[in-house]
Amino acid sequence: MSSRAAAKTKSTDQQTDRPARLLAWYDRHRRRLPWRAEAGERADPYRVWLSEIMLQQTTVRAVGPYFEKFLARWPDVSALGRASLDDVLRMWAGLGYYSRARNLHACAVAVLSEHGGAFPDTEEELRALPGVGPYTAAAIAAIAFDRRTMPVDGNIERVVSRLYAIEAALPQAKPLIKEMAATLLGSSRAGNENSRAGDSAQALMDLGATICTPKKPACALCPLNDDCAGRIRGDQETFPRKAPKKTGTLRRGAAFVVTRGGELLVRSRPEKGLLGGMTEVPGSQWLAGQADAAALAQAPELKGVTRWHRRTGVVTHVFTHFPLELVVYTASVPPRTRAPDGMRWVPVATLDGEAFPNVMRKAIAHGLDL
Description:
Strand content: 5-15%
Helix content: 40-55%
Shape: elongated
Number of strands: 8
Structural class: alpha+beta
């Protein structure tokens, strides 16, 4: 056999045994996570689903305490399905991207009412649930039910795009990355065609999180390093390719922090739209180019308030599609002052239990010097 043919055969063999190498590495180095089943145990679909919803656009470190709180309060999907949306939003406060919390509750209600409290076990049925998209459905199907499918999250995108040196930029590259990721599914054993699909997915997730990191990947420790196209080329950190990020237009507004003794004036945002159903202090619209005077004109009408006190500086916050600047105004009103329609007074001492998004907590802290 010629040296070229031998090299080609070796390369083919390496590619064929990638899934086995990946699983062998995973069996030695798998992360211990609150929602992950121990080796040899069957995963709990509720834990898998809950963690996957929470982990969307959020780090493992941030999700851990929230996951534990939810599990302690609602140990299964039936319990969560019987909870009120307000309670769910309060527990979710601070985790961000609040549409996830609303979808989480709606999904739990659907699983309870339409599936008797048991998650369906196919991608197609899972995708029909509120808030469950293609990735989440594949993740639950693979990890909880060992269906032979490969979910592709950010970690897996990075590993696969480097392994195959995929030149197309995201998001256009997603279909090809998903196709190539499927080649890394572990082979069946004992006649079970679905065997270890979930472990293969979690192995790639762990590899991306701990070895094939965005910067300075530890290629020497990677079980797939011998035939990683990105490593061989020396430009692995440039993958995945990404199209230039668009920055949204800055929006401006005002937040009005009103106290009545030891109470704060708040209201609930509309159920639909950004931060739907969350609690906030009264405020103006958030508009591009809005002048301070225009924002101040939208202050709530309260008996006894003749002048608003503007706090020095602004509160800044960055949403997915736009950055925001809020000017904070404060005022104090006499005891027994009635809250305007649609608003209410809550004790300052219990603010931690309210469903405030982070931007509102920033505004309140700025207004109350917390």
